[in-house]
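>> received
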Amino acid sequence: MAATHAVTFLQGVDDSAYAGNLLVRSAVERQLEILGEASRRALESDSSLRDRIPDLILAIGLRNRIIHGYDRIENEVVAETVRRDLPPLTERLKAELLRFPLE
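>> returned
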């Protein structure tokens, strides 16, 4: 899952190291792009997700900011968002996936 990957990529990386590491920044940003696009598609498929997981809108907004405003990305904000907001979002997404039966 993209959100989990982004969190994993930042483990043990402080803000200064994150800002200075193009490879890690690129990896995290790519995972956020994937998360945002998947969130957009999920909401298109099931609009009731907006009520159950309101943070999906924020994931879409972050994706758009990264893709369209890449020259104005604030590395500290991205890193803090990943560390603070993605773990609980990941848990809500996992719970949501449990609603679907496995075949």
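>> The helical segments are 2-10, 15-20, 22-45, 49-52, 55-68, 75-97.
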